[in-house]
Q: What sequence folds into this?
């Protein structure tokens, strides 16, 4: 609320509820050797690849979204047409290490209602913005109905199909943060 001298907001019957400002949270995305699919549900003023991927060190050499890519060069960092992360997209990252790594990045939690994700015909590499897990029928409720009939969704390990009058069905049952 903007400050106005002698302002009153709400009253005893209809109080104005103050909501604390979001506090920073840190992602903990487990990165396995080989290809990894992930998305980010936090945002900061600097979403550049070099900043977001700084905890990864030299454990990867290639990252891409649906349209662009970047390569990692030791002593320089990430370079290519993919320069910044956003919360709408899913990313594929090639880990070259033999050990599991952790992508740790601190930012503000994303408000899913403020991050509309456009869906087009064909494949869409979509991010997952909520901070908690959700069943597919809830997570994809805006896609439900006859327009979703025949749609297919997959993560790195599982899939589900949409059946009109029933909903999403398959081994992929939940949408998870970072997936």
A:
């Amino acid at each position: 609320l903007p400050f106005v001298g002698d302002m009153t907001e709400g009253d005893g019957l209809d109080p104005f509820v103050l909501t604390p400002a979001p506090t920073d949270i840190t992602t903990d995305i487990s990165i396995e050797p080989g290809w990894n699919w992930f998305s980010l549900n936090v945002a900061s003023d600097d979403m550049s690849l070099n900043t977001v991927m700084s905890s990864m060190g030299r454990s990867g050499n290639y990252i891409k979204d649906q349209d662009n890519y970047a390569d990692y060069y030791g002593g320089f960092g990430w370079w290519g047409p993919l320069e910044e992360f956003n919360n709408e997209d899913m990313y594929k990252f090639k880990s070259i290490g033999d050990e599991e790594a952790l992508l740790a990045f601190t930012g503000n939690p994303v408000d899913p209602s403020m991050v509309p994700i456009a869906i087009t015909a064909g494949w869409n590499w979509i991010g997952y913005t909520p901070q908690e897990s959700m069943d597919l029928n809830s997570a994809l409720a805006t896609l439900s109905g006859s327009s979703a009939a025949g749609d297919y969704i997959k993560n790195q390990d599982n899939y589900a199909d949409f059946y009109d009058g029933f909903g999403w069905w398959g081994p992929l049952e939940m949408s998870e943060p970072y997936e």
